[in-house]
Amino acid sequence: MRAEDAAAERTPENSRTSEAGAGWVCGKPGSFGELLPERVKPFSWRRPTVLWRSRNDVIAKLFGDPSNGIRRRCVAALTARGTRAAFTMHRSATEFSFLLLGDTGEGDRSQYAVVPPALRVGEDTDFMVIASDVIYPAGDAADYPDKFFRPYQGYPGPIYAIPGNHDWYDGLQGFLRVFCDLTIDCTPEPWRGPLALVPRLLWRRPGEVDDKALAQARDRYRGAPRQRARQPGPYWAIDTPALRIVAIDTGITGGLDRDQGAWLREVSAGPKPKLLITGKPLCVDDRRAPGRIEGGGTVDDVVRDPANNYVAAIGGDIHNYQRYPVRVGDRTIQYVVAGGSGAFMHATHIIPRTRLVDENDFRCYPLRGDSLSRYSKLYGRWLRLPKLFELTPQEATEAIRHRLGIEPARAYNSVGEASGASPSRRARFVAALLGVPKGQRRRLRYARLPVRKVPQRFRSEMVDWDRPPFFKSFLRIDVTEERLRIRCFAATGCGDQEDRPPVEDEVTIPLRPAATAASPSSPA
């Protein structure tokens, strides 16, 4: 067998090479259905009860986020109980690997579809990290058996996590019980001011916690000694000889309290290479979201400070994959969005031609064309206008190329289907209506349908489905003394892609001072 044939045999197709690699055609159903509970309670953001349980997000943004006060009281309780110094765990191994899953916990088919490929890729990793929103919709302790313990029962190592905004909607009670073994109620201090009665009445209080049920679920599903772990707090660090991993808790609205900010600056100091894991990404949808710190400064200020030597920052919250290799001074920092491991998919076709980095250096999954095609099919079904709305992946890819002026990663070169073909008027109309920007020049002359221009609590009901391709993703991160390697794997839900999930993006970051910038990978 020729070397190139052997390489093709080893490397499965991905969305950049073919529609089959993207999962548009499944050879066989995924095995994840066998992992689901016998009765799966349907999860839908269209349900008023689900939105009502998530109301603390709205209240925090309108009347003030109490997360900082809650966190301070919980951290004080953890410190008084006795926890690791500087909330830091230590690993002596120079070389290690871990999985990173973001925004996992809907408990339905889209979450479970990620499990078989993640277990296959991560069977030899040392631990797993869940970055943001372990439990939807409101972080309740009662949801942990079926949305955390059961799906990840086959992962042999410990699992650490940082909370997302949804985990905070019960005052972080469920999260702290499961990951920190903390059983106190850190109810927020009362609001003050002339309108204080409104948030006091509307704020969702934590539900009752059944500690016996949680203990039974842990023993049943993740009771092996190696699976058990207790992390220092809602924010923490893992220190190793080659790399320090720093994980922060961004609360409901994305900020850090003053105490956590001081801790972040303390554990970030020094020349050792560092990786940040955060509940909110610092670069997303071609814009910066630096993350404010109470009392002044931002998280991104800490990351960009050359004295701290951060090489990458990975954030959840947005349910897709994006990567921005941003040049800061004489070095490159990899900003990654990795929230696509279970919840509904946020569109990538609304991302404009990038300005934060050169478009040729930007990566995303799903590809913009696949995102547009998936949304067009959903809107065509919901509005009962399939002939108007539905775009094939090729039609959508051509529309993306036309509107953004970029060369797509997946070209169509079969007979009669020349790459670069002009999209139809219908395809251009649907692309504009579903939010694809027109380069950086013209504005729409008519209203867009809700995709990402309205708050999540309204748009989310329009972007969830339970059939392949799911376009979910997860990361495997490998660390040696010389390098940090980040790979994004696809989880399409197709059975023929579970054992060998496609690699959608890969970047290698040198960790030694004399090394050069991160190596490039394939186009998006």
Automatic annotation (TrEMBL):
Residue ranges of every copy of the Calcineurin-like phosphoesterase domain listed in the record: 97-181
Annotated SUPFAM superfamilies: Metallo-dependent phosphatases
UniProt-listed InterPro entries: Calcineurin-like_PHP (IPR004843), Metallo-depent_PP-like (IPR029052)
Domain of life of the native organism: Bacteria
Region (Disordered), start-end ranges: 1-23, 495-524
UniProt xrefs under PANTHER family: CALCINEURIN-LIKE METALLO-PHOSPHOESTERASE SUPERFAMILY PROTEIN (PTHR34211)
Protein name: Metallophosphoesterase
Upper taxonomic lineage: Bacteria, Bacillati, Actinomycetota, Actinomycetes, Streptosporangiales
